[in-house]
Design goal:
With 269 residues, this protein is mainly α. The protein has helices at residues 3-22, 28-44, 57-76, 80-95, 107-120, 124-132, 138-141, 143-157, 160-165, 175-197, 203-209, 216-226, 251-268; strands at 200-202, 229-231, 236-238. It holds the Pfam family CSN8_PSD8_EIF3K.
Length: 269
């Protein structure tokens, strides 16, 4: 099949994918099938990971659009490894071919999503490396970029309430996926500290502390996952004790060692 024929076929399938993905009731299984076929086509045309000089702007545009839909599809089906692969492929288009292509409307939303992904995975060094490739003024002006930048600052400050409140200020609904992952990490950190600081907590206080917004069902589910003991009559959570894990001190051995050291010191003196 000639290159022009492959491009025409890919264009038609791309239009089908775009229409399905934009539908209010998009069938993500169909989208996955279309994306799989399109990635094969892009690979055959050297557009999945393009190298060298490619002057056909139409080919590059279609390829970039396909990869952008793929990245957004990955977020909506909660497939983080797939999202990471699409972003890696898109970076080539956003950097190496930026002089040939008009700027994509999806570039900054996807860049912001990728920054959030790195935060949610606690990959802070990579987060800062990614920031270095972004124009400084965008860090404070572009809503898609400044949102994850502010989140990272809140995390460094330990201002977890600000992280929670940021859910109400997301620049796009897709951002909630990674923020929810981040909140799960924060909840587990708070839970670990609470287990060490308290023997028990009222259910209402635990809900507030863990940002469950007084949702009793979510609190009980989380408590079960952590192995906490909930007493409904008392409306309290008792943190699991670790009596079975007490460390036994080998008194006899320590005494013998101390006596040996004492004898050796006497011989030295």
């Amino acid at each position: 099949m000639s290159t022009s024929s492959r491009l025409q076929e890919a264009s038609q399938l791309y239009n089908t994918l775009e229409k399905e993905f934009a539908s209010p009731k998009a069938d993500f299984t169909k989208c996955a099938t279309y994306l799989a076929k399109l990635k094969i086509a892009l690979s055959e045309m050297n557009l999945l990971l393009p190298e060298g000089e490619i002057t056909n702007v139409g080919e590059l545009l279609i390829a970039r659009n396909i990869l952008e839909i793929g990245a957004l599809w990955s977020v909506r089906v909660k497939d983080i490894p797939s999202f990471e692969r699409y972003i890696a492929q898109l970076n080539t288009y956003y950097t190496d071919y930026s002089s040939l292509l008009p700027q994509s409307q999806q570039m900054y939303p996807l860049t912001g999503l990728n920054l959030l992904r790195l935060l949610s995975q606690n990959r802070i060094a990579e987060f800062h490396t990614a920031l270095e490739n972004i124009e400084p003024e965008l860090l404070l002006e572009n809503p898609y970029i400044k949102h994850p930048v502010h989140l990272e600052q809140y995390l460094m400050e330990g201002s977890y309430n600000k992280v929670w409140n940021s859910r109400e200020q997301v620049p796009a609904p897709d951002y909630l996926f990674f923020i929810d992952i981040l909140m799960r990490t924060i909840r587990n950190e708070i839970a670990s500290c609470s287990e060490k600081a308290y023997t028990s907590l009222p259910l209402a206080d635990a809900a507030t502390l863990l940002f469950f917004n007084n949702n009793l069902h979510e609190v009980l589910t989380f408590a079960s996952e952590r192995g906490w003991n909930v007493i409904p009559a008392e409306k309290k959570i008792y943190f699991a004790t670790k009596d079975d894990e007490k460390v036994e001190i080998p008194h006899d051995t320590i005494i013998r060692q101390a006596l040996n050291y004492a004898r050796e010191l006497e011989q030295i003196v």
